[in-house]
Amino acid sequence: MFTEQDIKALCNREYETIVREIPRTKIECSIIYNDKIIWKKQNNMDENIKSVHLYSISKLYTALLCCIARQEGRLDFEKSITEYLKDFSLFYGSNDVSEDVTIKRLLTNSSGLFNNARLGNNFYSCEDLEKHVNSISGCKLLFLPGTNYKYSNTGFNILGFILECIYGEKYETLVEKKIFKPLGMEHAEFSSTNKCLNPSTGLIATFDDALKGVKALISKNSPIDLLSEFDFANSLYRIKDKQISGFGYGCKVFKCMASSFCIVTGSYLNEYVVQVWSKEYRLGMLLYAQNEITKLIELFDKHDLFWETLLALQDARKIKSVNPVACNTKPEINISNHEIKNYISNEGSFIFLFFFNEDCICISNDKKKWIKLMRHGNQFVGSSYTVEFEVELARFYIDSDTEFGTFYRNDMEFTLKEGDKDWYQNEYILDESLEENEMNRQNIRAFNRVNKIYFTYQKNRMYLNGYSSLGRIEKDTLVTPYGEKIIIYKDSIMIGNVKYIIKNKKGKN
Q1: 425-443 confidence digits (pLDDT tens)
Q2: Can you give the residue ranges of the Beta-lactamase-related domain (predicted)?
Q3: Tell me: domain 335-409, CATH 3.30.450, correct?
Q4: Which of 37, 198, 366, 455 sits at a 20 to 30 Å CA gap from 173?
């Protein structure tokens, strides 16, 4: 029998390893089991910090509010958004596909919408949710609805506006009345700035109030009746047959042996928050951190308090299955003895992969940190990855905490090395004069709005920021994997409707 004391001992061991490696990182973390907070730790947290920004965990509350609206008969997840927004339209290519964008596809990031809107985003605030949503209407989707995943703030902001329309009340008022108050979250609120982002990223709460939200999701006697029976792990939206992991309602759903668990993460600058739970095991975890976030996430992959506890609980139930724990490959594994294959997604993301043996593959984003996945039926499974090959080895489908969708075999040389023959790289900076005109500010797509970009040429291939492979349409016109046009001028380039001006040049131009 795996007891509370066992859980505490396990969490202490993993937590102490993390804080020993990154002692300056500020961390607050708690484990809930059987409706009780059984383990809680802090490291370097400032006592003056009363509330924390929960960022994308906000999406989970928007999803829950949608579920409540469905239970009340106000919202149908199978219906198109045009049922609720009569003059709203979205296109794929030149085709109006608005009817295919359903409430469920917005909830599961499978609508094809991009992450940010033209009016109201992480760079320019918009106080009016309706204006923000209207600025999305008429835009082109990244893929046909229901055929892939793409993380999207805009999808949840549209849901927030639809909730306002069907209830006739402000989103913030609805969440307060239907979620915060029943759960006793007295110190939870939504940001007073960037209000259009509230349904997707605006939640602010004390750590203890956020824990009340976690507890409600795993309790069999939740103050919100719907949650007593509903399990978000059952909300997985499958874009292909036999899929076991992917996006659910406002969260990601992962398979762990014989059961599933849910996870939501949020981050911005030097802050990171993760909420993960299993209703079946009545186990939940909330972690908030500041500073050295990248290193923390890497360490958490190897010392995951929740994952290790869930595995132990499953083992206590004597579930017999392949142990799919992901880990760094051991030093004795000689990478040079294996054929490393390159794969690329439609969006330009890279995955490197090799077969360690018949029942084990290793994957990496950078050829430095390799993760082992063990065979589980016709799939290869790890703590945060699921890979399923299609059409022999020509392509594979992947679910993970960072990548979703199909990756295709590609034998191009992706390594961009300064000094290679015919190599050059230009650095461009955003033309800030565009921001002087309010209309230009509103029409610049946030997807492209970064302060600095790099354009690299090597071996007849062109790359944006050393990452996205570009295609050529005409002599001076390229296209990104998202379908955005890039027009090259002598001292500037246009990406979509955003102008960047040359700053530095390297190599042979």
Answers
A1: 788 887 766 555 544 444 4
A2: 53-193
A3: no
A4: 37
